[in-house]
Amino acid sequence: MKKIAIGGGQGFWGDSPDAAIHMIRNADIQYLGCDYLAELTLSIMAKQQLKDPKKGYAPDFVTRLLKEAGKEAWEKGIRITTNAGGMNIKGCVDAVKEQAEAQGMKGYKIGYVTGDDIKSKIPQLLKDGWTFPNFDYDGNFNDIVDKIYNCNAYIGHEGIQEALAQGADVVITGRAADSALFLAPLAHEFGWADDDWDNLARGIMAGHLLECGGQGAGGNYMYDWRNVPRMEDLGFPIAELTPDTFEITKAPDCGGIICEQSCKEQFMYEVLDPANYLTPDVNVDISKATITQVGDNRVRIDNIRGKERPNTIKLCVGYHKGWKTVSMLSFAWPDAYEKAKYCADIIMKKMKKRGMKADDVHISFIGLNSLHLNVANMSEEALKNLNECVMRIAVFSEDKNECAKIIPEISPMQLNGPPGASFFGGRAHVQEVMALWPTVVPRDVLDIQPHILEV
């Protein structure tokens, strides 16, 4: 019976390539999927490309992964899918071609898929009455049109699958949906039809369990993180599918863990409704799915169902929202928390005298309420005996000048405020705030095109 094994080689831009390289060298896989794009990554890449037209993609895909193990993967017949193209797919393709030529990889076929960037189509969509409704809050899209950095649709598997069918050894995309990078090879190998909803759903969940790299194999693991073996050599998960079975495992001789609990945590990651997990390719139903340990570092997934895909495609719009300044001061025992609060009060009184007109000011104390606000209560005695406390003040404004007013007031607090203060991290700077406008567009707006370039 035919079996296809796919490794999850990357969880985000900046992730370590070590596990992917280890899989190429030690695992019996036919494909490797590498996800580089989080929600704001494209906006960062768009800003980079504005400064330098050659930038705008994830260069470490080429300079780290392909440089070290790309030729070995090619010689072993391991095909790679990735969204490392970001905002500059052609730039990424050129860099891959240059790397392949340097390693003598004549005949290496570079596939790439265009069409996710629809920024140029916004004016016509607005004319046609499309309102770009925001998932998260009320707002008028017209208010941000002149502030947009990027506007990218989460494309599905079809363009990637077609590039693979044309013989691509690597397929590069822009904002492909994470799981589509893994579904495409499976649909290609098993010949799944575009309306074979149950199998497409299996492929999507294979990608879902792999797309975050180490998070699916004991990294960022809440259940039993203390007992994850060899985290310094953390392996990433591998999906093995046949026409009838679906299992998750990992490469030999590496750390990490594949168990029911680790798979359950990743299984529910970012899933709002288990009966209706919407993707560009299929509406997935995992409400009756089962996860069963069937061996050492081997878990079987069953009872995944699929329904017809949605008529709209998720759209990631990144735009300039305003400016921020983040400043911090640390205070030492005794009475560290009390002193930190008092210092924050002094600074805000100074800001009132300066007439600062911030749109938002957030004051928190690291180690106490900066992550979970007041969810985790601390006793008065514990607060009194904190060894140290870091005061953090974040100021947001659409006016850059307003954010700058607080900067000169922070470092003087070492001598002009409560005792035991220390200044660290250098003088604060005003930073741009990029925000997301999550929305959808009609599927038929997209013009997805696969291409092949042979070295």
Write the layout of secondary structure elements.
Layout lengths: L3 E7 L7 H9 L4 E4 L6 H11 L8 H16 L3 E4 L6 H14 L6 E6 L7 H6 L20 E6 L4 H8 L4 E4 L6 H11 L6 H14 L26 E5 L4 E5 L9 H8 L9 E2 L4 E3 L4 E6 L2 E5 L2 E3 L4 E21 L3 H19 L5 E7 L13 H5 L3 E10 L2 H5 L8 H4 L4 E3 L7 E12 L6 E6 L1
Parallel strand pairs: 1-2, 2-3, 3-6, 4-6
Antiparallel strand pairs: 1-7, 4-19, 5-14, 7-8, 8-12, 9-10, 10-13, 11-12, 14-16, 14-17, 14-18, 15-16
Helix pairs in contact: 1-3, 3-4, 6-7, 7-8
Protein name: Acyclic terpene utilisation N-terminal domain-containing protein
InterPro entries: AtuA_N
Pfam families: AtuA
Helix content: 25-40%
> How many runs of DSSP E, i.e. beta strands?
19
**Apparent shape:** globular
- Return the structural class: alpha+beta
First and last CA, distance: 34 Å
Return Rg in Å.
25 Å
Tell me the strand percentage band.
25-35%
How many discrete structural domains?
A: 2
pLDDT averaged over residues: 96
Number of helices: 13
